[in-house]
Specification:
The protein is 79% helix and 0% strand. It is mostly helical and 205 residues long. The longest helix has 31 residues, at 2-32.
């Protein structure tokens, strides 16, 4: 009985995270659309191309596992948290942005190729999230899948914050504070609308 009550509570917490998942997604895309046209286009194509590759052609599980092991070794000093770091940190996405940052320092003209690095970042981020979701399904998902939903929602939010921070550093058109503020506002609007829908007393006179 105790386990079932805890399962319900965890599922409730996961449901509370859902509006922020939606809000941060909408806010990220909105902020991305404020940048040069090529950037949101490259990011969108990176997501689509990976999904097509994964579904129809090839699933690069070994690449994901390599990135996960790199993160776990790099963050081994945070034991036991390092065991989940591989899921929370999109290693190859960060390396994609880092490669652009270093290339731009060496060859300033590489700024014209930012779209290519954005495509690669979106591609690897999608790979990371897809394999993370699959890996979490194989673990203890919980009676109501509450552990799975809470974990995947939390990881998604962390990943979007990391990517948003990277764009803030690499392009002057993406503002991290505005992005997070917008995410909070959109999530708040969903919470408010849901609360009113559930608890507002209708006047039947």
């Amino acid at each position: 009985m105790k386990e079932k009550i805890l399962a319900v509570l965890k599922l409730f917490l996961a449901i509370l995270l859902l509006p922020f998942v939606i809000g941060i997604t909408a806010a990220f895309w909105g902020s991305l659309r404020q940048t040069e046209t090529v950037i949101p286009s490259a990011f969108g194509w990176g997501v689509v191309v990976y999904l097509i590759l994964h579904i129809l052609l090839y699933q690069p599980a070994h690449i994901f596992d390599t990135g996960k092991k790199i993160t776990e070794k790099a963050m081994g000093f945070l034991s036991p948290l390092f065991k989940v770091a591989g899921f929370c940190v999109p290693t190859f996405t960060i390396l994609s942005f880092l490669a652009y940052f270093l290339a731009k320092k060496i060859w300033p003209q590489m700024e014209a190729c930012f779209g290519c690095f954005v495509f690669l970042a979106a591609f690897t981020l999608t790979m990371h999230l897809v394999f993370t979701a699959n890996a979490l399904k194989g673990k203890s998902a919980g009676w109501l899948k509450e552990n799975y939903f809470f974990a995947i929602f939390s990881i998604y939010i962390i990943n979007m914050i990391i990517v948003g921070a990277a764009f803030n550093l690499l392009t002057g058109d993406f503002y991290f504070t505005d992005f997070m503020k917008s995410a909070g506002q959109k999530a708040g609007a969903i919470y408010t609308a849901s609360f009113k829908q559930l608890f507002e007393i209708q006047d039947v006179r």
